[in-house]
Amino acid sequence: MRQVTIRKQVRLPVRLPDGRVATGRLFSFDGLADGREHVALALGDRADGPGTGPAGVPLVRLHSECLTGDVLGSRRCDCGPQLDDSLDRLETEGGYLLYLRQEGRGIGLYAKIDAYTLQDDGLDTFDANLALGYPEDARDYTVAAQMLRALGLDEIRLLSNNPDKTAQLTRLGIRVVEQVPMTVHLTPSNQGYLAAKAARSRRY
């Protein structure tokens, strides 16, 4: 795996879900395998930079970008509420959010919108991807492992309901000592989406 280094780091005031403002530290990277602009945000006791947090295994959330959920407040998924939960918990416990540019489980924003139209016609989120010629889940977490190593981390507590994240990180040499479950945010608009994830639980 190629050597990845921290490109820049900057302090960043972050608004938490309850309205409080926390000071985090935002990291960019050089040498990531896919060439995309992924970032890491350190919060709580980890916000002073790599290697400066308390002893113990840090909590880490890998969060795939979701413009519709994270920014626009879409209720077709639970990405926005999961991001809020992650920020709150990472600030409390100290840890890292890796914000990965993997819109639509890795197929891209426009393709995700195309998949939405097929979901409106009755396909679930996985079959819609397949109907468009994409994998059920196209995400590769090689860059996440690279980012973690650049931050000086080779073992983590992973904040996720997705066992595929744990499996991929483990194969990439990151030791996941615990997979910490997240709250499921069920709404009338996302119940089909969440039911599909539960029914096809190889990855979730």
Automatic annotation (TrEMBL):
EC nos: 3.5.4.25
Positions that bind GTP: R61, L62, H63, S64, E65, Q82, E103, G104, R105, T125, S160, K165
UniProt-annotated binding residues for Zn(2+): C66, C77, C79
Pathway annotation: Cofactor biosynthesis; riboflavin biosynthesis; 5-amino-6-(D-ribitylamino)uracil from GTP: step 1/4
Name of the protein in its database record: GTP cyclohydrolase-2
Catalytic activity as recorded in UniProt: GTP + 4 H2O = 2,5-diamino-6-hydroxy-4-(5-phosphoribosylamino)-pyrimidine + formate + 2 phosphate + 3 H(+)
Cofactor binding mode and count: Binds 1 zinc ion per subunit.
All residue ranges annotated as the GTP cyclohydrolase II domain in the record: 21-181
Superkingdom of source: Bacteria
Necessary cofactors: Zn(2+)
Species whose genome carries this gene: Nocardioides panacihumi
Active site: D137, R139
Zinc recorded as keyword: yes
Keyword Metal-binding included in the entry's annotation: yes
Family named by the database record: Belongs to the GTP cyclohydrolase II family.
Keywords of this entry: GTP-binding, Hydrolase, Metal-binding, Nucleotide-binding, Riboflavin biosynthesis, Zinc
Gene3D superfamilies in alphabetical order: GTP cyclohydrolase II
SUPFAM superfamilies: RibA-like (SSF142695)
Matching Pfam families: GTP_cyclohydro2
Function: Catalyzes the conversion of GTP to 2,5-diamino-6-ribosylamino-4(3H)-pyrimidinone 5'-phosphate (DARP), formate and pyrophosphate.
